[in-house]
Amino acid sequence: MGAEESERQEALASRVRNELSAAGLPVLTPGLARVLANGAEAEVDDGADAAGGVYVGWLASPRLRECTGRAFRLRLPDDPLLRHSGEIGAAMTRSTAATLASTGFAVEDADDGYRSHPLRVTGGPARAAPMWALRDDEVAVLGW
After folding, report:
1. What is the dihedral of CA 44, 33, 64, 61, to 10 degrees?
2. Measured at the alpha carbon of residue 32, what is the angle toward residues 28 and 33, in degrees to the nearest 5?
3. Is the four-CA dihedral 31, 34, 40, 41 of positive or negative sign?
4. Parallel, antiparallel, or unpaired for β 106-109 and 53-59?
5. 140 pLDDT more than 90
6. Which pLDDT tens digit goes with each residue over 62-109?
7. Torsion angle of alpha carbons 85, 16, 28, 57, nearest 10°?
8. N or C: which end of the chain has fewer CB within 10 A?
């Protein structure tokens, strides 16, 4: 992926983060320590292959991730936490996809068993300003 395309993808990821935050979801910011992180995560895969692009996933709380990891390490496939964690991921994926689609983003299933982020964002809304942007009537000073 060239510099121009990489910049375009980073801008798209930023728009995704803003829309998810506007919807009230916690959103990870680039550079946040993983041990502190939870919420929606939009990242750019800047590979030069067809898998490149913007991907969105959900990161459960650090505590839930630790408990889930413990169940895997101890080989406890019947631990109810594993099913619960999977259900959380599925629900948040559906919710995130619906939220982004509602604001005009083109979203698809990443369809990649190796990727932790199940959604791929292939395009953003056609309008330049987001729906939550300040409008002229909000900033106009009456009587001037």
Report:
1. -70
2. 125
3. positive
4. unpaired
5. no
6. 999 999 999 999 999 999 999 999 999 999 999 999 999 999 999 999
7. 20
8. C
Please name every residue paired with 41 in a beta bridge, in sequence order, or none if there are none: 57
pLDDT tops 80 at residue 28: yes
At 36-53, the pLDDT tens digits run 999 999 999 887 666 778
Q: How many residues does the chain have?
A: 144
Torsion angle (degrees, nearest 10) of CA 95, 96, 100, 103:
50
pLDDT for residue 142: 65
SS (H, E, C) 59-92: ECCHHHHHHHHHHHHCCCCCCHHHHHHHHHHHHH
E strand segments, the chain = 39-45, 53-59, 106-109, 119-123
Q: Dihedral of CA 59/64/69/75: which sign? A: negative
Give the position of tokens 């292939």: 122
Rounded Cα distance between 81 and 61, Å, is 13
What residues contact 129, with CB distance under 8 A and at least 6 apart?
A: none
